[in-house]
Amino acid sequence: MFQILPIENKTKFPKSMNAWNGVLNTSCALSTILYIAVGFYGYIRFGSDVAGSITLNLPKDEPLYKAVKLMVSFVVSISYPMQFYVPMDIVILKLQQTIDRPGLRLAAEYAIRYTLVLITFTFAELVPHLGLFISLVGALTTSALTFIFPPIIEILCEYRGSVHNRRWQLLVFGNLLICLFGMVGLLTGTITSIKAILHSFRVNE
């Protein structure tokens, strides 16, 4: 989600990014199909015993499942540059403004990259039930960034000094429905995640 605008700005034909059969819609459709398929068949196979990651339910001794886990680890490792693309783009711009020597600037960039990776690794190792906390953060931030803030921003940007504009009224109505949908998702996701976190700590006690 956070890489869409930067990638669109760097493409040769930005308009093809948002076409009905463009890069954005095609990639989102394929990702949605894959997520639904993995969740559906994973739940059919393991039922209520399904773990936070489907790879945790796979047998540990068979070569095929070891290969699957290896491929998942590889995908996670190569996705790090994508996740850090936007913040590092900002950091590199700041480094170019403050450090004149190219060698020193490159060393500082790598130091920042390694530090960010180590921070995420530390959280992954130290935080208990990390998957539940990730669900909580996702429920809070994803709903807000996807369904709440964009409609509000569009309403403010499209305002032309009069609330009696018919087009603006329809725009406000549609965006408020989207905000309402986002608020429902935010509240239900947050409540569910908090209940799951409390339940997991009670079980461990």
Structure summarized in a few sentences:
By secondary structure, the chain is mainly alpha-helical. It has helices at 4-10, 23-46, 63-83, 85-98, 102-126, 130-158, 166-204.
What would you say this structure looks like, in words?
The chain is mainly alpha-helical and 205 residues long. It folds into three domains: 21-50; 58-126; 128-204. Helices cover 78% and strands 0% of the residues. It has seven helices and no strands. It has helices spanning 4-10, 23-46, 63-83, 85-98, 102-126, 130-158, 166-204. Helix 4 (85-98) packs antiparallel against helix 5. The radius of gyration is 22 Å and the shape is globular. The two termini are 38 Å apart. The mean pLDDT is 84.
Notable features of this structure?
3 domains; single chain; 7 helices; mainly alpha; 205 residues; 0% strand
Number of domain units = 3
Using the alpha-carbon principal axes, give the shape: globular
Radius of gyration, rounded?
22 Å
Sketch the topology as an H/E string, one letter per element: HHHHHHH
Helical run tally: 7
Average pLDDT for all residues: 84
Give the SSE map:
Layout: H1 4-10, H2 23-46, H3 63-83, H4 85-98, H5 102-126, H6 130-158, H7 166-204
Helix pairs in contact: 4-5, 6-7
